[in-house]
Design brief:
This protein is an alpha/beta fold. Strands 1-2-3-5-7-10 form a six-stranded mixed sheet, with helices on both faces. Strands 4-6-8-9 form a four-stranded mixed sheet. Helix 1 runs parallel beside helix 2 and helix 2 runs parallel beside helix 3. It starts with 9 loop residues before the first strand and ends with a helix.
């Protein structure tokens, strides 16, 4: 029987040199996104901790998974429907906070990114992936139609045809193909991922804050 009170995940946050590093951590569930993690993302980006911060790096804990998407666990059909509805609402809120964050958020795709995890990643200002990371959007296969805000971000990054291909086939793509599609913006070797991400955040931190904010607002 499924556990009635499964352990919740958490968002591991560290700060240094004007940069916040937030890692999605859900041990044993491939960093799946549960209510606690999604709410913590909203609280982090909407709260006072971003004051004085110049950039945020969003990644998964460990080196195998960015995130496997919404954590639905093992539930009855009725419970699953309710959990999915609640999860989609929380996921949409988290993606909105990433997209409207007062400071740039860079997605660090340190491993597999699936489903709702990709919605969070596509809401970031840009995405850096390690070579060999696999990305997939199985929404149609499990009977989910994404909300307009989420789909709009994919279309803006990849165009309509590639968005349809990603969503309708549910096929996983390697980081290199994701780069060709416009789903990620840079692919580096695994050993270089965090240095590359930190260098990118440091470059943003050196820029004039008003210019960064103005440019992001106009692009949005």
């Amino acid at each position: 029987m499924p556990a009635e009170n499964p352990p919740s995940g958490r968002l591991l946050v560290e700060e240094g040199d004007g940069v916040l590093i937030a890692r999605i951590a859900n041990e044993g569930r491939a960093n799946a996104l549960d209510a606690a993690i999604l709410d913590e993302i909203v609280s982090l980006l909407h709260g006072p901790r971003t004051a004085g911060v110049r950039a945020v790096l969003l990644a998964g804990a460990g080196d195998r998974h960015f995130s496997s998407g919404l954590d639905l666990g093992e539930r009855t059909a009725e419970a699953l429907a309710a959990e999915l509805q609640d999860g989609e609402r929380r996921l949409g809120n988290a993606a909105h906070e990433i997209a409207s964050s007062p400071v740039p958020v860079i997605g660090v795709i340190n491993g597999a990114a699936v489903g709702g995890a990709l919605e969070l990643a596509i809401a970031c200002d840009w995405r850096i992936a390690r070579r060999g990371a696999r990305l997939a959007m199985p929404a149609a296969r499990i009977g989910v139609v994404y909300a307009a805000d989420g789909l709009r971000r994919f279309v803006a990054a990849m165009g309509p045809a590639r968005t349809r291909r990603l969503f309708l086939t549910a096929a996983a793509v390697e980081a290199e193909e994701a780069y060709d599609m416009g789903l990620v913006d840079q692919v580096v070797e695994a050993d270089d991922l965090w240095q590359t991400a930190r260098d990118a955040a440091a470059a943003v931190a050196r820029a004039a804050p008003l210019a960064v904010a103005g440019t992001r607002a106009i692009v949005a």
